[in-house]
């Protein structure tokens, strides 16, 4: 599948989800759990309109009851939200994209490193699928890693930006957590190296 | 204007008309088709492939390309003397050819005219590296400048 046909399919999928939400609001919660399994678009620079998230995934302060200390990051994989705990049972909530089926995980980590405009190295399975891709792309606008990256402990996983804002709210990645670039820049500026990160994954019954 | 000047003007007009008529009746010049400046053999091999958008990133991108030789981009000679490679966003390998452009630039793409949107420009060719930039502005913006570094240098 080419990127252009991928774009068409994504647009069709987004349209189908929007249509389902309009006609049958009750099914939207399950429709948005669709594993998009999208093809990355290295070099693609989204427009400001494309970077505008639907209201539920926009950064916002919410009520959040927790025993975790302010400054802790809590990632709720099943709900597609990242919370930055604030005092008084409040949190800043960001919409995220998460790992697709088989690539989701849970655990406790700490931010081990922070990087502005990180470089991108497509994983081997992606090179196999898209052998025309460069094996390394220097950081910058259009890079699939987006504007910032926060490395999670010694794992291969990161919280990072994206050049595919349409994937926020979906299970698309290989286990990393992605935010739109404005949000990841905001989070990057708020959390220091050493920040505790709790990754929660609800058990499907 | 005197008679002498008028005569001179008429003579010049006639001369100009003759020249124009002559130009119009001449056959268009035959384009000179030269061989591409780059030999296909120079591009055959295993390459580390990396890309950048800002010139300041080129030096480290070259190093990164070399570091990617565990996932090489392999270019083989095609059955018709071309090169087996990929176009942008197309996982189907196909035979591409080197094509001389009218501006002295060498293009690499499907057989046919040089400089079409499926082509890429081939720059800075030496035995161990070359650089390409897509002609299509969308591809060029997305992929930037692509650097190929030979895995196992030729001496």
Task: Give descriptors for this structure.
heterodimer; A: 205 residues; alpha/beta; L,D-transpeptidase catalytic domain-like; 2 domains; nine-stranded mixed beta sheet; two-stranded parallel sheet; globular; disordered N terminus; B: 155 residues; alpha+beta; eight-stranded antiparallel beta barrel; 3 helices; 26% helix
Please state how the strands of the largest beta sheet of chain B are arranged side by side. 1-2-3-4-5-6-7-8
Largest sheet of chain B: 8 strands, antiparallel, barrel
Uncertain parts of chain A: 1-37
**The CATH superfamily title of the largest domain in chain A:** L,D-transpeptidase catalytic domain-like
What percentage of the residues of chain A does DSSP assign to strands (E)? 15-25%
Shape of chain B: globular
> What's the β-strand tally of chain A?
11
Count the DSSP helices of chain B: 3
Assembly classification = heterodimer
Q: Name the chain pair whose interface involves the most residues.
A: A-B, 25 and 28 residues
How large, in whole angstroms, is the Cα Rg of chain A? 17 Å
Helix percent band of chain B: 25-40%
Overall average pLDDT of chain A: 80
- Measured distance between first and last alpha carbons of chain A: 34 Å
- Helix-strand string of chain B: HEHEEEEEEHE
Q: Report, as a whole number of angstroms, the end-to-end distance of chain B.
A: 77 Å
**Range of helix content of chain A:** 10-25%
Unreliable sequence segments of chain B: 6-28
Radius of gyration of chain B over alpha carbons? 24 Å
């Amino acid at each position: 599948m080419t990127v252009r046909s991928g774009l068409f399919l994504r647009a069709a999928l987004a349209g189908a989800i929007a249509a389902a939400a309009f006609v049958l609001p009750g099914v939207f919660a399950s429709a948005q759990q669709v594993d998009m399994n999208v093809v990355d678009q290295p070099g693609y620079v989204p427009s400001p309109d494309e970077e505008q998230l639907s209201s539920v995934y926009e950064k916002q302060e919410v009520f959040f009851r927790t025993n975790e200390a302010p400054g802790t990051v809590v990632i709720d994989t099943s709900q597609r939200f990242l919370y930055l705990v604030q005092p008084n049972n409040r949190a800043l909530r960001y919409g995220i994209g998460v790992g697709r089926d088989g690539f989701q995980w849970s655990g406790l980590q700490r931010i081990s490193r922070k990087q502005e405009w990180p470089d991108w190295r497509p994983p081997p399975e992606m090179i196999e699928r898209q052998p025309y891709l460069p094996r390394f792309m220097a950081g910058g606008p259009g890079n699939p890693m987006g504007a910032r990256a926060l490395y999670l402990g010694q794992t291969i996983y990161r919280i990072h930006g994206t050049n595919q804002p349409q994937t926020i709210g979906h299970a698309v990645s290989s286990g990393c957590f992605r935010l739109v670039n404005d949000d990841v820049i905001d989070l990057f500026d708020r959390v220091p190296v050493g920040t505790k990160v709790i990754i929660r994954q609800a058990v499907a019954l | 204007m005197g008679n002498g000047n008028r005569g001179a003007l008429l003579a010049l007009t006639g001369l100009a008309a003759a020249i124009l008529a002559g130009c119009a009746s001449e056959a268009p010049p035959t384009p000179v088709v030269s061989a591409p400046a780059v030999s296909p053999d120079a591009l055959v091999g295993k390459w580390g492939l990396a890309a950048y958008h800002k010139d300041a990133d080129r030096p480290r991108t070259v190093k990164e390309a070399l570091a990617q030789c565990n996932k090489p981009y392999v270019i083989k000679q095609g059955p018709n003397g071309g090169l087996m490679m990929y176009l942008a966003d197309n996982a189907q390998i196909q035979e591409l050819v080197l094509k001389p452009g009218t501006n002295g630039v060498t293009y690499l793409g499907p057989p046919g005219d040089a400089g079409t949107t499926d082509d890429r420009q081939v720059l800075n060719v030496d035995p161990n590296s070359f650089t390409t930039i897509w002609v299509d502005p969308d591809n060029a913006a997305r992929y930037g400048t692509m650097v190929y570094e030979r895995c196992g240098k030729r001496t």
